[in-house]
Amino acid sequence: MKSDLKDKTLVLYLSGHIDSANAPAVEGEISSIMNNTPHKGLELDCRDLKYLSSAGLRIILRLRKENENTVVSNVSPEVYEIFDMTGFTEMMDIRKAYRVVSVDGCEVIGQGANGKVYRIDPDTIVKVYLNPDSLPEIQRERELARAAFVLGIPTAIPYDVVSIEGGGYGSVFELLNAKSLAKLLASGEKSVDEVAKMSADLLKTLHSTVIKEGSMPDMKEVAVDWAEFLKDHLEPALADRLISLVKAVPDDMHMLHGDFHIKNVMLQNDEILLIDMDTLCHGHPIFELASMFNAYHGFGDLDHDIINDFLGISYETATELLEKTLSLYLGTDDPARIKEVEEKASVIGYTRIMRRRIRRRGYATEEGRAEIENCRKHLEELVPMIDTLTF
Asked: Where residue 192 sits, what CATH number does that domain have?
C-alpha cells in the first residue's frame, strides 16, 4: 500500500477491491504503516479504489473511531454511492473525485465578484471560482440557488462540481444555447428597451420574494460596514451622516441578487435565468440598485472603457440602460424621480467603490487616488442633500 505524509496528515492510497477475502490483510498493512509513521491526521485517498464491501466499510469505521478527523477523498461516483447508501457520508468527511475540465480558449460569458463563467460546449457552462480552495463557496452557492429556485426565482441549478485544469474548482450548469443579456445587447439581437424591460421584470420578481430569516446574508449589515470603513477617510460630519443614512434604511426580508447586471442574466429559449447566485442576500432594493449603478456607471466614471471591457457595450449605452431600467422598475417617466432614486443608489455605490479602492492600496497609485477623490467629491455633494436612502 502506498502512503505519504503531508503536513502531519498520513495519506493512505487504497486501490482495487477491498472485500472479505483481503480485508484482514489490508487492515494489517494499514495498522503497520500507521504504527510506524507519526501523524496527527488521517486521509484515505480512494482515487484507485474500485469496490468496497461491508468488510472494507468496517475497516474504515474502526479507523474513524480511532482517528476522529479521518477524511476519505477522491472517491469515484460508484464507491461514493456505497458510502452514501450506508450512511457513511452523514457521519464522516467523504469527498468525491472531481472530473477535470479545461477552460483554456473558452468564451467568457459572465463575470461576478467571485468568479468567471465560461462556455465549455454548446450545451454547458462552468463557473470557475477565483478562490482555489472554493469547495465551501460552491456548496454555499448551490444551497442559495436551490433556495431561490424553490421560491420561484428563475435560475440555473448546478448539476456537477469539477476540478479546473491548472487549479481551482467550478460548478457546471446546462444552459443550451443560452446567451447573456450583455451579449444580446452588444450584438444587436436585443435593443436597450427590450433588455431594460427584461431586467426590470426580473428585478420586480426578485424584490417581491420574501425569504426566511437567517437563510441569506443581510445586505444592510454589509453596507453599514462599507460606510463605517470610511470614517477615517471622510470629514467627521460627512462620515457620521453617511453612516446614519445607511443605518436608517429599514430592515427588509425581500430577496436581492447582490450583483445584478446584464452579464449575470441569461436568455435561453426566451426564458430568463439568473446566474452567479453566490451573492444572494436580503434587504431594501436600494442596495440592489447601488450595485447596478456601479456596474453600469460608477466603475466607469473616470475611464469609460472599463464599462465597455466589462459589459461589451459603451458607457453611453450602459447609462441609457440604467435609466430605462429604473424607469420601468419604478413605473415612472418622470426624469426628476428617476434621478432622485439614482442619486440615492449612487451614495451606496460610491461608498463601496471608495472603500474597495482604499483596501486595494489605492492611495499608492495616481489612478487609485483619482478614483478615491472622485468618490469623495460625489459623496460630499450628495450626502448633505439626501434625507433618506429609501424610496
From this structure: 3.90.1200.10
From first to last of its 391 residues, the chain has per-residue pLDDT tens of: 999 999 899 999 999 999 999 999 999 999 999 999 999 999 999 999 999 999 999 999 999 999 888 999 999 989 999 999 999 999 999 988 888 899 999 988 777 677 888 989 888 889 999 888 888 888 888 889 889 999 999 998 788 889 999 889 999 988 777 889 999 999 999 999 999 999 999 999 999 999 999 999 999 999 999 999 999 999 999 999 999 999 999 999 999 999 999 999 999 888 999 988 889 999 999 999 999 999 999 999 999 999 999 999 999 999 999 999 999 999 999 999 999 999 999 999 999 999 999 999 999 999 999 999 999 999 999 999 999 999 9
User: What count of residues does the chain have?
Assistant: 391
Q: Please state whether the predicted TM-score (pTM) of the whole model is above 0.85.
A: no
According to DSSP, the residues that pair with 12 across neighbouring strands are: 3, 44
- The answer to whether residue 390 sits within a structural domain is no
Identify the domain containing residue 119 by its residue range: 101-174
CA distances from 350 to 161, 377, 386 (A): 36, 10, 14
> Looking at the 3D structure of the chain, how many domains does it have?
3
Grid cell 477491491 in the structure block, residue? 17
